[in-house]
Structure formats: structure tokens, C-alpha cells
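Customer escalation, tier 2.

The customer says the design service returned an amino acid string that "doesn't look like it belongs to this structure." They asked us to rerun it and document both sides in this ticket. The original C-alpha cells are below, unchanged.
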């Protein structure tokens, strides 16, 4: 309930923050225009969505088979696989590697899963430096914030906000020149690539038939993070599999179009293991941490397991009217927006995060834009149903519905004279919720039954 109350308080503030709304509408407006342009590359986008949905469904239904196939092929290339059942186990195993390498600095790129296990905070507690190298992630790290959006983590900040931040934190002369700000970050980060003993990435796709990890990006920082450090660790959710390398011909354009409106992202890399004999670059050692962290529990739920098909494009966030009003930080989770509201209660506990499934208008916009056709709004309803069946509703809600049911089933209570009493009760019940931002609910002076009798009498 504490998490739920915090969500409601922060949502109330953000929804009526005019400057926040201006920034988000501006940035999502640019995204929408780019997505429509990117759609033109497909002769039949709907067919592509159906194909992607089918392939991911095959993965989810046969996850054990494809995971073992990936592990077998990856280890043949000299890579090492670590299976982590939860965040604590993942951090423990990674810590062993970092300790062995006497690590003082880690560079990171393209890894939301590291946010999921609170990797940066863990490194800080161990006295190690974790440096985000993607520009958006670097900006929010400087600001002491979490990513606002799973694709564009600094979406909530204007150029002026970033200029002020760089001036304050990096002690550079104030400038609102975007190119100069980018070059400043680049100059600082280039030295970090050379200092770091370990590079950390995530993975957009795990490719079963070649034991590869596909990473898609626009800045090239993932390549730098895996080229200079001698050790590369990829932290990837177990659901990120696709059957074969040939399937990237579909998934890379679908991800790019839905994520940023591009035909294809600038840098697309496949890692199949450490540097091989005769190769001039690449890490000496490569590890893949296959993270469960609640995913198998969701997999066991036949009705909701399709949520594991998500490719983290962020399209549902941009389409969601709730997300666009309350913002990403309000969710207080790694994965925000509609898909985050579906999976977070299963990853982090229904009791603490069931309220997210109610933070939706159920308009279906999220489902209509999903490139792998996840029925997101229906899954939100199923989550709500599960929370009620598990008895996770509040006492006031239970009492309220019991009284409502009793009144609706009892003609005399429904027709009870005295709208003044009814209005007083409604005002007390809804004064901190509905009536806080809207006109108060007023009961009609006469009941329908009274009006009907009068009409028939005439």
C-alpha cells in the first residue's frame, strides 16, 4: 500500500505539471512523426507483426529448448554462461568476476537488465565506478535519476535542462548547443573506455542457432564498451531469444521502426563469444548472465505468458495516454508504461505492484502499436482479476463494493428518499479521489422509479 500511495501522490503532481507535459508532448510528437515515416519501409506491416508474434510465441512455448540450444552454441565459441534465478544471485556471480579481475571501473551500454538488478548501486557499495556510456543514460546518471523511458531515458529533459546539468556537474561553460554537449560527453567517456577493466551490455536478442547476442544501438557505445575492456559481461533476460540469425531480418527493422522510427538502427552487432585466434579485437573473456528474476513465474501462467514476447521497443509507452501524463518515474519500476504494468507485478510481487495494472484507461492503444502483437490491455485486466482473487484489495474497497452491491440489489435502498443524504455520503466517499479534480457527483432529486410513476400517471 505504501508503493500504491506513493504512485498516486506522484501521479497527481505530474499529471498537472504543465512544463512536464510540454516536454513529453514535444518529444513524443517527434517520435510519432518518425514512426509514421519509418512505417513506409514495410509493404505489409501487419503481416510482419503477425510473423513476429508467431516466432516469439514459439520461443515462449519452448523456452527451455531454445535456452539450452543457445548455451550449447555460445559455450562452443569459448563463452561462459551464468544462470541467475534472481537479482541477488546475478550480482553475486558478477561480483566474483569483478573481484577476480581486480575491477575499479566498469563501462556500461544498452542494459536495462542492470537497472532491474540495481547493478550501479551494488558497484558503488563495493567501491567500484559504474559509468553509463549511452548519452541518455549518462545524462540521467549525472542527474542522479533512473531512466525515464526504456528507449529514450532522458525524454523528460529539455536541452536547457541538460545544459544546466552539464554546467553544474561537469563545470563546463554554459551552452545550449546540442552538438557541443554531445562532444563534451564523448570526450569524457572516451577515457573511461580505456580505463575500464570490464564492459557490461545487455542484449536485444539471444540467437539460439548460433549462440549469439544481438545488440542494436545508435551511438556505437556498446561496441566501444566491449572492444577495449578485456572482459565483457552481457546481462540478458531469458525471454530475449529468437530461433535463428535469419530472424533478425524481421526483428531488427521491427524494433527500429517501433522504437525510434528508423528503418534500421545505426549500429547492429552480434557477439558470439570472446576474441578468437587470429582476431585483432574483442574481449579476452565473455560471459552471459541469463536472468530469470520472476520470468519463469510469469511463464507458468498460461494466460499471461505472452507478455514475455516483449522486445522492449517502447512503442506502448509512447502510445499510452496515462504514461504521457504521469511520466516514467512515477511508476517507480525499471519497466514503466503499459508493458511494465503487466510484467512488474509478476517480477516484483503482485501485492506491492498490483496498482500499476489499474493505471490504464484500457483504450487498447498499447496493443495496437505492439510490433509483436501482445494483447497488453487484456493482460492488464487479467492482472486486476488475479489481484482481486488473491484478496489484495483494500478494506475500504471491499466494504465499498459490498455496500454498492447491497444497494443495487435492494429496491428500497436504491429509491430511498432524500438526495441530500445520498449526496453527503457520495461527497465524503469521493472527496479525495474523483471530486478532487472534477465536479462533485450529484444524485438526481427524484429516482427513476418516481419519474416513471409520474409519467405513467399522466
Amino acid at each position: 500500500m505504501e508503493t500504491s500511495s506513493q504512485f498516486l501522490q506522484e501521479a497527481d503532481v505530474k499529471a498537472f505539471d504543465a512544463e512536464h507535459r510540454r516536454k513529453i508532448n514535444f518529444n513524443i510528437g517527434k517520435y510519432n512523426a518518425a514512426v509514421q515515416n519509418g512505417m513506409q519501409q514495410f509493404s505489409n506491416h501487419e503481416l510482419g507483426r503477425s510473423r513476429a508474434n508467431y516466432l516469439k510465441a514459439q520461443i515462449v512455448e519452448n523456452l527451455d529448448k531454445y535456452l539450452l540450444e543457445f548455451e550449447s552454441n555460445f559455450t562452443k565459441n569459448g563463452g561462459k554462461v551464468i544462470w541467475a534465478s534472481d537479482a541477488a544471485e546475478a550480482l553475486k556471480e558478477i561480483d566474483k568476476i569483478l573481484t577476480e579481475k581486480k575491477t575499479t571501473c566498469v563501462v556500461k551500454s544498452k542494459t536495462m537488465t542492470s537497472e532491474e538488478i540495481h547493478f550501479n548501486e551494488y558497484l558503488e557499495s563495493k567501491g567500484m565506478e559504474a559509468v553509463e556510456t549511452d548519452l541518455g543514460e549518462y545524462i540521467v546518471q549525472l542527474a542522479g535519476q533512473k531512466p525515464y523511458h526504456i528507449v529514450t531515458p532522458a525524454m523528460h529533459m529539455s536541452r536547457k535542462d541538460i545544459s544546466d546539468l552539464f554546467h553544474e556537474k561537469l563545470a563546463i561553460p554554459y551552452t545550449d548547443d546540442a552538438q557541443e554537449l554531445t562532444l563534451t560527453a564523448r570526450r569524457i567517456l572516451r577515457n573511461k573506455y580505456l580505463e575500464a577493466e570490464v564492459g557490461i551490455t545487455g542484449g536485444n536478442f539471444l540467437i539460439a542457432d548460433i549462440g549469439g547476442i544481438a545488440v542494436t544501438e545508435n551511438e556505437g557505445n556498446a561496441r566501444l564498451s566491449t572492444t577495449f575492456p578485456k572482459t565483457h559481461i552481457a546481462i540478458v533476460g531469458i525471454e530475449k531469444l529468437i530461433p535463428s540469425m535469419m530472424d533478425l531480418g524481421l526483428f531488427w527493422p521491427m524494433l527500429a521502426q517501433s522504437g525510434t522510427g528508423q528503418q534500421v538502427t545505426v549500429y547492429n552487432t552480434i557477439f558470439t563469444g570472446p576474441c578468437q585466434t587470429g582476431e585483432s579485437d574483442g574481449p579476452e573473456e565473455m560471459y552471459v548472465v541469463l536472468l530469470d528474476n520472476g520470468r519463469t513465474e510469469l511463464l507458468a501462467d498460461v494466460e499471461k505468458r505472452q507478455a514475455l514476447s516483449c522486445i522492449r521497443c517502447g512503442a506502448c509507452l509512447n502510445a499510452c495516454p496515462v504514461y504521457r501524463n504521469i511520466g516514467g518515474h512515477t511508476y517507480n519500476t525499471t519497466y514503466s508504461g503499459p508493458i511494465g504494468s503487466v510484467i512488474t507485478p509478476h517480477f516484483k510481487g503482485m501485492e506491492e505492484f498490483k496498482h500499476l495494472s489499474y493505471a490504464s484507461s484500457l483504450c487498447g492503444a498499447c496493443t495496437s502499436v505492439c510490433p509483436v502483437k501482445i494483447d497488453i490491455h487484456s493482460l492488464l485486466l487479467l492482472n486486476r482479476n488475479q489481484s482481486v482473487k488473491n484478496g489484495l484489495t483494500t478494506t475500504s474497497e471491499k466494504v465499498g463494493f459490498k455496500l454498492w452491491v447491497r444497494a443495487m440489489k435492494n429496491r428500497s435502498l436504491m429509491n430511498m428518499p432524500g438526495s441530500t443524504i445520498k449526496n453527503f455520503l457520495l461527497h465524503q466517499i469521493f472527496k479525495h479521489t474523483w471530486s478532487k479534480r472534477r465536479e462533485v457527483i450529484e444524485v438526481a432529486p427524484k429516482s427513476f422509479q418516481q419519474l416513471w410513476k409520474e409519467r405513467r400517471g399522466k
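Tier 2 assessment: The sequence is consistent with the input. The beta strands are 80-84, 105-109, 129-132, 198-201, 205-207, 212-217, 231-237, 241-242, 267-271, 285-291. The longest strand covers residues 231-237. Sent an explanation to the customer and offered a walkthrough call.
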